[in-house]
Design brief:
The chain has 185 residues and is of the alpha+beta class. It contains four helices and six strands; from the N terminus they run αββββαββαα. Helix 3 runs antiparallel to helix 4. The N and C termini lie far apart (51 Å).
Length: 185
């Protein structure tokens, strides 16, 4: 029973860290990355469809994203979708491809992004702590119902705390990397 619980806790905490890192990848640093735009939804035959499913996305140079729609009729819709995504990007459309120059970040924008990174990280930490709370509640309930001994419950709670510390440290390391990435010129 305890091993099953540990596997579940480990999996859920890992997923929380992965989700947090995935959220970070969508934040704009000073360099071009297709992760900035691939999630943008474009109307495609009446359905909102992720951009990476209707066009080729590439980064031919460090400060340029190029979007080549599979159907030329989508060019205007893609351009509108990128502009309305509130990323601070201004695409240019030549009728065949859409080019998105990535402007350098201002100091004010960098600070704003770092605040956003910290908010995302805190959400990830909260997710991990919620998993810890659920596991501890489960262990205390099992101890109360005499399914496990008091010593085993304390040992298991200690192990859950070690896992919590490990995954929160991973999030902290990811925050440090993203901050460094944002602050680079």
């Amino acid at each position: 029973m305890i091993n099953e619980l540990f596997k579940d806790v480990d999996h859920r905490m890992k997923m929380s860290v992965e989700h947090t890192k995935n959220e970070f990848s969508g934040l704009r640093s000073g360099r071009a990355s297709i992760t900035l735009v691939e999630h943008i939804k474009v109307p495609y035959y009446g359905n909102p469809t992720p951009l990476n499913q209707v066009a080729n996305l590439s980064v031919p140079e460090p400060r340029m994203i190029v979007i080549q729609p599979w159907e030329k009729s989508l060019t205007a819709d893609i351009e509108k979708a990128v502009m309305s995504a509130d990323l601070g990007l201004n695409p240019t459309n030549d009728g065949v491809v859409i080019r998105i120059p990535i402007p350098a970040l201002t100091d004010e924008r960098r600070k704003e992004l770092i605040r956003h990174v910290h908010n995302i990280a805190e959400d990830g930490r909260i997710g991990i702590r919620n998993v810890r709370r659920d596991a501890n509640d489960h262990l205390k309930r099992a101890e109360k119902e005499h399914e496990i001994s008091e010593d085993n419950a304390k040992r298991a709670i200690s192990n859950v705390q070690e896992m919590t510390d490990k995954y929160i440290k991973e999030i902290d390391e990811a925050v440090a990397l993203k901050e460094k990435d944002i602050m680079e010129v």
